[in-house]
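Example (one chain per record):
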Amino acid sequence: MPRPALRLAAALAALLAGAARADTLIDNVEGVTFDEAGRPEPLVGLVIGTDGRVVQVLHRGEKPSRVDYLVDGKARFLLPGFVDGHAQVMALGFAALTLDLSPAKTLDEALARIAAYAAAHPDRPWVLGRGWDPVKWGAWPRAGDLDRVVSDRPAWLVSADGHAGWANSAALAAAKVGAATAAPLGGRIERQGAAPSGIFHETAMDLVARAVPEPRPEDRDLALAEAQSALLRRGVTTVTDMVTSMADWQAYRRAGDAGRLQLRIIGYAPDAETMSLIGGPGPSPWLYDDKLKFNGLALVLDGKAFSPGAWSKVGGGAPRLNQTQLRNLMSRAGIDRFQVSIEAHGSAAVSAALDAVGELAQTYKGERRWRIEGAEESNRSDLSRFGADVAAVLPPSAGPAAALGEARVRVAFGTGTPSGSGDPFAAVVAASTRADGLPRQQALVAMTVAPAWAAFAEGKVGRLAPGLRADFILVDRDPLLAPVAELAETKVLETWVGGRKVWAADVAAPAATGR
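Predicted structure:
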């Protein structure tokens, strides 16, 4: 064959290997996947079919079935793609498009960044951002602090943990919030005398947030693109979106229609009305080649753990829903087989959520996989009440994880991004270095197999096995053997979804040769 023809054939092989249009072998790798019970399964290669599903997982000494193309894994380590069990996709995207205050170690540093941002964006009607941390600063800021650098328009900045907001005087005026404004159930307004200080906690954040102009559809499309990029860069191939609005769902559908949806999104609505609008008669089927699905309803029972917003048995906090409201909403979802998630952080909230699940499970038979999200303050007596049909979706640093694991409860991790780093390897470190945390292997299972099960997606993602989607990552070290200090530095080098490389630290195309 002439040399130009050889070059053309090689280029075509590379294209086809990247697009998974013929059986492809990912070779020259070490790796691990997990079985349905979370047991590790070492592997040395992966055969991907033309449909983007796994054909064969190769173990040491095994030969692949006949393949058409070969991709050199360059001796890197292969893992299933991460499944984030609790996230806010659009909030992550908008965080990337607005002011980032996370680097600010002091109030003065934050004010300097805010002033520079406002000067650089004089056309924006509001100054929006997130990431400030009062723990770093040693004190809560006030509206007057913000007025010093932004007085010509409203400014609204969400804290790093997502549970507080900081407004300037113009934002308070735009939201019509004053001394007579009462805090809603489950929220708190910090005050200077009778006047609001500019800091709003939990549900009280809505008093100001509702005055922020709604993003345009094109803004949502851009935010989704930013969120996808951030998640794929971290090795997250499936994300559970716990606040899917109708506008968000439409953005996901636009991306799917245009072929721009690269990762898999599983949505849950924040209220029953939105649930009915999106799902109609029940959960949606998988759409866009298993890229998008709507599962159900996400209820919030209380606020942040170990804060005044948490509903605790030892005092403090109050439920955002009374027991009748909680059961009515669960029933409304259950009748149409929507999955129900209950975010419950404080000990009283966890107990009440488990009470409701136990009662409703008697009415709604069949596998429902009730989700309890948070559960950081769970009493040990309540841990035994998590049954086989209840998924515990916890922050990686949550204390009850090990006790739940010992009780054979399926523990899934959700990073809560953008309220946190969102880095799965940081999550594994946080979980496995606690005295009462999970062993490293279980922590990895809690970021792959378990959250897939918690979202009824175990037949699609979460591990690598014949027939499942070929969603995987290549990283620079073995996360089961790396020292703790090095584990935190693990770098994702490539992310593959459905047998296609969708992100790479090295933008060069993978080498491929015909077989």
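Caption: Residues 106 and 138 are 9 Å apart (CA to CA).
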